[in-house]
Amino acid sequence: MPSLQEELFPSTPGKFKIDRAHSMNRQFHRCFASTSTMFLWALFLIALTASYLSFQSFVDSGSKYFTASWGGLQWEKQVRVSSQIRRSGGMSVLVTGAAGFVGTHVSLALKRRGDGVVGLDNFNNYYDPSLKKARRALLDSHGIFVVEGDINDGRMLEKLFDIVAFTHVMHLAAQAGVRYAMENPNSYVHSNIAGLVSLLEACKSANPQPSVVWASSSSVYGLNEKVPFSESDRTDQPASLYAATKKAGEEITHTYNHIYGLSITGLRFFTVYGPWGRPDMAYFSFTRNILQGKPIKIYRGKNRVDLARDFTYIDDIVKGCLGSLDTSGKSTGSGGKKRGPAPYRIFNLGNTSPVTVPTLVSILERYLKTKAKRNLVDMPGNGDVPFTHANISLARSELGYKPTTDLQTGLKKFVRWYLSYYGYNHGKPVN
C-alpha cells in the first residue's frame, strides 16, 4: 500500500490515476486553510509594522525633543533676559544672522545703547564656523543670547514670538556670496527666499506685529550701467543667482507689506568690510594669502579695465541699520490682518567713493609690510559685476546716514584686528 508521501510526491510524475472528485475536495480545503492562514499572518504583519512605525515615530520625536538646540525653561529664560530693554523708549530686536559679520556688529551696537537683543543663527559651514562661534562668544560676553536654529523652522520662530513681543526684527540671515551660487544654488533659495518667507510669516502672524528691517544688496542693480546707482533705477537684470534671490526678496517683502501691513525697510549694502569680516570676501582672502606668501587673483573687466567697488566700512553700515530701525514706523496689522497702510522703504547704504581692486591691494601691502604676488586674470562669467557706486542721498535725508570712514582708515582697522585675531603680530601696532 503506497505511503502518503508516495501519493503526494510520486517517483514518476504523470504516471498514475487521480480520483478527481476526492482530489478537488481535498485541494479546496487546503486552499481555504492556506488562505485563512495567510490572512491571519497578513493581519499580524500589518499590526507589527504599525507598532514598529509608531514606536519609531515616538523614538524620533523624543530624540528631536531631547537633542533640539532650542526649547526648555532655561532656554526661555535666556531669551527673556537677553530681550530686556534697558533704556527709555528702547526696542526689543530679533537679529537673524547674529553670528554673522554685520549681525554681530549691529547686535553689539543695539545692546550698548540699551536695547533688548536676541540673536538667531544656524552656524552653517559656508565659511569657517569657528569664526562665527568666536563672534557668538563676543556677543555672549555682552549679555546677548544667540539662539542656534534655522530661519526656516517655523515652530521655533513662533516660540520666540510667544516668549518676546519683539518690536523690531533685523533680518540679516542669508546665504551670501556671488560665486558660491554656481556650486550650491539650492542654498540660496533655501535661505534667501524660503527663509525670508518663513520669517515674514512669523512676523505677520505675531501680535503685535514687529517692524522689519532686512538686508537686500547692491547686487540687485546687476547689469545696470548707469552710475551712481539710485533706488529708483531698474533692478530687473540680475547678473547672479544671489542677486536674483535678493531681488525676489524685495518683491516678496513688498507683498507682505501690501497684504498684511508689515512695516518693511530694505537695505542695499555696498561691499561691507572691516574687523570680524567674512573670509570669503576679497580683502579678507587677499590679506590671508599675502601673509602666507601665496599669489592673489585680481580680476579685470572687459578691455582689461580694473574692477571697482564702493567699499563701505562696517561702522557706517551699522549706523545705517540703527537709523533704519529708529525711523521704521509701526506695522499696521494684528494677528495677520491689515488695518491700514504701513511704511515700505528701500535705501542704499554705501560709501559713495568707489576704489579699484588693485588700489585696495596696494593699501593692504602697506599695512602688512609685504608685497603681494599679483596674478591678473580676466573676470569669468560667474556673476560678478565690474563696478558698484552708491547714491546715498535718500538715506542721508531719511535716516541721517553719513559715512565717515575712508578705505585706508577702514583697512588699517581691519588689518589690526586680523593680525591680533590670527596671532601674526603678537600685539605689535600697525603703522
UniProtKB/TrEMBL annotation:
Topology in the lipid bilayer: Multi-pass membrane protein
Segments forming domain NAD-dependent epimerase/dehydratase: 93-327
SUPFAM superfamilies to which the protein is assigned, alphabetical: NAD(P)-binding Rossmann-fold domains
Catalyzed reactions: UDP-alpha-D-glucuronate = UDP-alpha-D-galacturonate
Major location category of this protein: Golgi
InterPro entries reported in the protein's UniProt record: Epimerase_deHydtase, NAD(P)-bd_dom_sf
Any one of the GO CC terms: Golgi cisterna membrane
The UniProt record lists the keyword Lyase: no
Subcellular locations according to the entry: Golgi apparatus, Golgi stack membrane
Gene Ontology MF term list: UDP-glucuronate 4-epimerase activity
Subunit structure: Homodimer.
Protein family per UniProt: Belongs to the NAD(P)-dependent epimerase/dehydratase family.
Protein name: UDP-glucuronate 4-epimerase
Gene source species: Quercus lobata (Valley oak)
